[in-house]
Amino acid sequence: MADVLRRHGDAYRRDHDGHLGRVERRVMSAIELCRTAALGGHAEGCSDCGFVRCAYNSCRNRHCPKCQSQARDDWLAARQAELLAVPYFHVVFTLPAPVAEIAFQNKQTIYAILFRTAAETLRTIAADPRHLGAEIGLLAVLHTWGQNLHHHPHVHCVVPGGGPSPDGTRWVACRPSFFLPVRVLSRLFRRLFLDELRAAFNAGDLGFFGNLAGLAEPAAFDRRLRELRRVEWVIYAKPPFGGPAQVLAYLGRYTHRVAIANSRLVSVTDQDVAFRWKDYRHHGKSKVMTLDADEFIRRFLLHTLPDGFHRIRHYGILANGHRAEKLALCRKLLDASLPNSPAEQNDDAVPSRTLDRCPCCGGAMITLGILPRPQSRRPAFWNDSS
After folding, report:
1. What average pLDDT does range 60-65 have in this prediction?
2. Beta-strand (E) ranges in the chain?
């Protein structure tokens, strides 16, 4: 991705100067400069074989494909001790296209509504004695892209298959291979989301531009809501994972993913960018798509997130405020002991990266000296919370 932006980024900035926002400019700059001399770094050498290399600093921007591996491994190591010895389910909440186009112009507001209503839907239906009758928890991850890089906002939820009873005296497990009825989830999710969408409109929290400008009129917005109440909202529930190792493997694929991984890029020319994608309308068949470089960059930048927006969130018994207390109760109810250290708990644990080892002989790499940035002022994206 850095090669694409270094080759075509300047032309894209010139052609879209009046429409390119601050966040998009910062993301482009971060990826272009990531792990280059522009960010400084250090020289290091192997104490055994004498191999020497320059290690340049990462941009640490969350949209950068290069910078997610270490962040993912660190995050997964922290999650490992929180897994329960129960089946886990994967539920996906997707916004219909007419809502997705509103979301693109109101990312902060609509993505937050998507998170809240997806979590409330799962917790409400799970608490109903007719379905489960338990207090559940979930981890939710926002993705805004499809395989072809079009805007496709959806939330992946990983949910333990059960939870404490309302009085906290017993563990209530779901049926094997079945969590909650998808049709019931879909109807409640649609109602909750549209109620919050209406509230956001009434509060003046939504903006409409371009071909959506007409929705600023209350009558037009009401018509859009009526249309959305008549369509089916897609919720997809996958079969349960086989165990904690599979949960971690899944989370590793989804939590710190960016719109497109470098491994999917096939070629970059003076005009085009080619990348691999899976066509799920044809049973996930792998294909190669070639786009004009301008269009490829445009699609990539569709998925930048507002500053400070959290794309990974925890709810219910996994919420940050009382997670340790609730997990202790769950383990007590499950008659499970506290987990051992990650290395003892699971042989399939996500390995930590060994960047301090020599790639030639495996010896220890020792810092030989600091490579300062060529400019005294740090780039604007440095330590960016996004």
Report:
1. 90
2. 41-46, 52-56, 88-94, 137-145, 151-160, 162-164, 171-173, 235-238, 265-268, 272-279, 285-292, 312-316, 365-371
Q: What is the side-by-side order of every strand in the sheet holding 88-94?
A: 235-238, 88-94, 151-160, 137-145, 312-316
Give the pLDDT score at 281. Answer: 84
Domain ranges of the chain: 82-259+303-338
Higher pLDDT, 238 or 24: 24
Rounded to whole angstroms, how far apart are CA atoms 119 and 316?
A: 8
Question: Was domain 82-259+303-338 assigned CATH 1.10.10?
Answer: no
Q: Which amino acid is at 310?
A: H
C-beta of residue 137 within 8 angstroms of C-beta of residue 319 = yes
The span from the CA of 268 to the CA of 254, in Å, is 26
Could you tell me how many helices (H) and strands (E) the chain has, helices first?
11, 13
What share of the chain has pLDDT > 90, as a percent? 63
In this prediction the pTM is 0.86
DSSP one-letter code for 212:
G
